[in-house]
Amino acid sequence: MVGIHGHADAARLAVLALHALQHRGQEGAGVATWDGAAMRCHRGRGLVGEVFGPTDLAPLAGAVAIGHVRYSTAGGDALRNIQPLVVRSRAGQVAIAHNGNLVNAQRLRQDLEARGSIFNSSADTEVVLHLLAASAQETFVNRLVEALYQVEGAYSMVLLAEGRLVAVRDPWGFRPLVLGRLGEAWVVASESCALDLLGARLIREVEAGEMIIIDAQGLQSLQPLPRRPRRACVFEQIYFARPDSVVFGRPVYGWRHELGRRLAEEHPVAADVVIPVPDSGLPGALGYAEQSRLPFQLGLLRSHYVGRTFIEPSQQIRDLGVKLKLSPVREVLAGRRVVVVDDSLVRGTTARKIVRMLRDQGAAEVHLRITAPPTTGGCFYGVDTPDRDALLAARMSPAQIGAWLEADSLGYLSLEGLRAVQGEDRGRYCEACFSGDYPVRPGAEGPAQQLPLFVPGA
Ligand code: AMP
Fold first, then answer.
1. What is the pLDDT of residues 359-416, one digit of tens each?
2. How far apart are CA 280 and CA 386, in angstroms?
3. In 3D, which of 182, 21, 178, 159 has the Cα closest to residue 92?
4. What is the reported pLDDT for 309?
5. Which CATH number fits domain 251-303+311-425: 3.30.420.40, 1.20.140.150, 3.40.50.2020, 3.30.450.40?
6. Which of 34, 308, 326, 330 has its CA 20 to 30 A from that of 188?
7. In CATH, what number does 2-225 get?
8. Contacts of 277 (CB under 8 A, 6+ apart)
9. Would you say the C-alpha torsion 259, 264, 266, 267 has a positive or negative sign?
10. Pairing state of beta strands 273-276 and 337-342?
11. Where exactly does CATH 3.40.50.2020 map onto the chain?
């Protein structure tokens, strides 16, 4: 997700930024701009490079743009769900892009539909547009605050409202969002790697519960939402974010490296070589190898021409996908006792195939190490996880999982180890998928207490 304000080439910058954020969603992409009089939007299914051909940018005139890459956790991957969602309403012309998942969207939608709202998509994000339009407040910002008082859950959002760029992060701070500067232009993005690509300077995170409004007058920061305990998604650090990003104020690469070191302390093993599952297991494997003083080698190569196997629809295609994506290097593996490091084990599809693949290449022993605790629960806040009964760790002990994977041993990082890496932010992360401690459950009501004093003229 990205927002640009005050640059003559806003749409082009937005598309470039989406390339840097491609790992956050591969199902669809879109950009909306405001040219001073009208909203323009181009969206499509597929990767950014597939959606934006050479002629698609020309119509996207204007100095303000927002963009999004889609990874569906609510609403499916139909074209109508691809963001930004754009509407013309009594709140004006509005485009919205959202990262996260609203836990009370279904109930809000039912209420709105009962009052006559007609929804155009099945995405949870659309309720915010309906609430905006239904608000009796006079200014756009106050309408938005009123809408956000009714939603609950995870949202980092950018909105484009007739030349004004609004960036907002939910009070828990589940999903990341950063603010940067490119000359006189402002940039907001899910991750700092998008700023780096544009040559923009990282200024700071958008704070949890903060709303930033950027218009011709400059930047205004409000804290209109009720305070909550901070619960940044720990899985961003473990897997989701790109390792060259700074997320929640900490460089991701260093985080993952440290997870690997801890894992080596917790689960050492006599072995000849440490290999990563590329790309996501790489920094963790380096940390593991360094701490255990074992050689680090590339025992698996990744093809960059096939998509992520995880999000393929059927088990059969997923199984094939692992082979399409990863190829073993016999020279590194034959006759060796191998430690293979990955960031997470969800259904175990990837790991089971990998163990078999390594043995087929002559590995003498295969020891699997995971730089996260067992995934025992699903996510309600924007990470796509299968139903609980498809989660290996929800129904088997680590020893049983190791046996099922046919590994010689399996070691997960402990929850305590994960917390140690959090350092001074310990206790400020959402770890619900590992601990079962969910900050807010599906169906929870929005804050709905007294609305704050609104900002006159905002
Ligand atoms: P699985 O094969 O189901 O055990 O999935 C684990 C693999 O998928 C690991 O290699 C992870 O890097 C990756 N992974 C974990 N969670 C997700 C997710 N939510 N979306 C996409 N990939 C994921």
1. 999 999 999 999 999 999 999 999 988 888 889 999 999 999 999 999 999 999 999 9
2. 19
3. 159
4. 46
5. 3.40.50.2020
6. 308
7. 3.60.20.10
8. 285, 300, 326, 340, 341, 342, 343, 350, 354
9. positive
10. parallel
11. 251-303+311-425
Can you tell me whether residue 435 is helix, strand or coil?
Answer: helix
Interatomic CA distance for residues 434 and 431, integer angstroms: 6
CA–centroid distance, residue 426 to ligand 1 (Å): 24
Six token digits for residue 440? 């807010």
Distance (Å) from CA 274 to ligand 1 centroid = 20
Q: Name the residue of 310, 325, 370 whose CB sits within 8 Å of the most ligand 1 atoms, as the mutation to test its pocket.
A: 310
Nearest CA to ligand 1 atom 19: 384
Question: Which token pair is 395?
Answer: 């129904």
Per residue in 234-247, pLDDT (tens digit) is 999 999 999 999 99
Query: Using CA positions, which residue lies closest to atom 23 of ligand 1?
Result: 310
Residue 342, ligand 1, Cβ within 6 A: yes
How far is residue 159's CA from residue 253's CA, in Å, rounded to a whole number?
A: 30
Instruction: Calculate what percentage of the chain has a pLDDT beyond 70.
Output: 94
Instruction: Confirm if 234 and 175 have CB atoms less than 8 A apart.
Output: no
> Does this model's pTM top 0.85?
yes
Q: Would you call 118 exposed, middle or buried from its count of C-beta atoms within 10 A (0-12, 13-18, 19+)?
A: exposed
